[in-house]
Amino acid sequence: MKLIKHPWFEDWEDLDKVFTDLPAMVSGNKSFVPAIDLYQNKDNVIVETPLPGIDPEKVDVSIENDVLTIKGQSEQKKEVEEKDYYRKEVRTGSFYRNIALPTHVLGDKAEAQYENGILKITIPKAPEAKPKTIKVKAKK
Phi then psi for 14, rounded to 5 degrees? Predict the structure, then answer.
């Protein structure tokens, strides 16, 4: 899993997105794969995903074997009766995303917050994954 983008390979990321969304497109299923930001600090792995207009009560978050799963349902509130759209890009339906985390985590201590349309999941790193500083002692 790459965490740093390289300008030479940006075009390939679009191709990767096509393959990620392909199962939903082929099946005709109204589903989508939410975009994520994945980063870390000293003690935690943090995942953020924009889910505007989605009821946080309809979002399930789970962690198993250092893999984060986010899934839920987005419902359309209203529909234009005539269905004479020029463009219809607002996504509705189910969403599902598995994210392999870059380090071992304590999944049972994870926290999820939903604010201003952004779901933020904070997952503590397992103790063995934290860097340890060892003091070098010099003998005289």
Answer: -65, -40
56 and 114 in contact (C-beta within 8 Å)?
yes
Task: Label residue 131 exposed, middle or buried (CB < 10 Å: 0-12, 13-18, 19+).
Answer: exposed
* pTM for the predicted model, two decimal places: 0.67
Q: Which domain holds residue 14?
A: 7-77+90-129
Taking only the tens of pLDDT, the chain with its 140 residues reads 445 555 555 555 555 555 555 554 444 556 778 899 999 999 999 999 999 888 999 999 999 999 999 999 887 666 666 677 777 767 678 889 999 999 999 999 999 999 999 999 999 999 876 677 889 999 98
Q: Give the total number of structural domains in the chain.
A: 1
Q: Is residue 138 part of a domain?
A: no
User: Does 140 fall in a domain?
Assistant: no
